[in-house]
Specification:
Blueprint (H helix, E strand, L loop, with lengths): L2 H19 L5 H9 L8 H7 L4 H13 L3 E4 L6 E4 L4
């Protein structure tokens, strides 16, 4: 197995575990986290488009996930992108 494929599988497992472990997550938050199973980096606009969600709703959901430690923000303003937070 290649290193990249191993990382993808580990990320998918981690996201699935996070979603199952936090019953306080709403429908939108769960949907956003599920996106990270298929792709490691997302922007707010990409998430809104993929989920057919209002961009403001997507931004608020992502901010909540960043605040709770699920996602990490990279960059700033319109050029920002998000990844699953690394836990060591």
């Amino acid at each position: 197995m290649t290193t990249l494929l191993k990382q993808k599988n580990q990320l998918a497992s981690k996201v699935s575990t996070m979603i199952k472990d936090d019953s306080r997550l709403g429908k939108n938050a769960r949907a956003v986290l599920e996106l990270f199973n298929g792709k490691p980096e997302w922007s707010v606009s990409d998430i809104a488009e993929a989920l057919h969600m209002n961009i403001n709703t997507a931004a608020k959901t992502i901010k909540m996930l960043v605040d709770r430690g699920y996602l990490a923000k990279h960059g700033s303003t319109k050029g920002a992108w998000y990844t699953v937070e690394q836990v060591y």
